[in-house]
Structure prediction request, 322 residues.
Amino acid sequence: MEIRELGDTDWPQVWPIVRDVIRARDTFTYDPEMTAEQARGIWVEAPPGHAVVAVEDGRIYGTAKMGPNKPGPGSHISTASFMVAGEARGKGVGTVLCRYALDWAREHGYAGMQFNAVVETNVTAVEIYKRLGFTVIGTVPGAFEHPVQGRVGLHIMFCPL
Amino acid sequence: MEIRELGDTDWPQVWPIVRDVIRARDTFTYDPEMTAEQARGIWVEAPPGHAVVAVEDGRIYGTAKMGPNKPGPGSHISTASFMVAGEARGKGVGTVLCRYALDWAREHGYAGMQFNAVVETNVTAVEIYKRLGFTVIGTVPGAFEHPVQGRVGLHIMFCPL
Prediction:
């Protein structure tokens, strides 16, 4: 599995991954109705933002974006987001992407990485993050409307770098 | 002190308040170098966002913005931000604005209000929020670069509605 920068020609392969994740409404606080172009604008940010894909045999199995969590006096803390294709879940793609993001943030001098809204029922992701050094800073009760489980909490997670 | 919607002709009075707050770099994770127009775009959001001013004798002493904290499955939780003119601090303007935002959010059916980044050294604000029903969900260590106190924590605060 290779991680490389998301290039101009990758979006047709990335969009179905992003679309399926946001339309499932169970892990991301994104507008599930957003268009491909709106999603591209959110996912592929201008520098210092950085977006990558996880590729094997020319096929994209996952994607990540990373960059400063806040501007100005908050810009020394990074954030990142990860999406994995449905057929590639459970194969470690998320772990590889998260490890890459942490390395990237460390190399770029960030002092930590913060996740602002990790759905508490997304236990696979929470476990990956914990294994890689994140702790739950706090949980906002009922802040996420899950299609099956109703209102569940959103974790704020942090990893010092 | 009257709270009313921020109108098209108010920005010349609001911008100096916003400018002074963000250039002080001690309470907001905004880019301190942003222009008046960039700040206006961030502060005065399209509906469902809502921006107001606190007015007395035709003069604007403070401003607030409010709306959904996240899109999609997070949109039932509101957020808000407040700025008070330097010469009007300690006169209760912040409290009046925060109370207004909570009432607005309740009337618009939000289930809670979340603040994503309250600088822990901004004790005046933290005390106002606690008095009005907020609790600290967690604190991200060293996430704010304070010009005098160095890296200080950012509270995530929440008030159920």
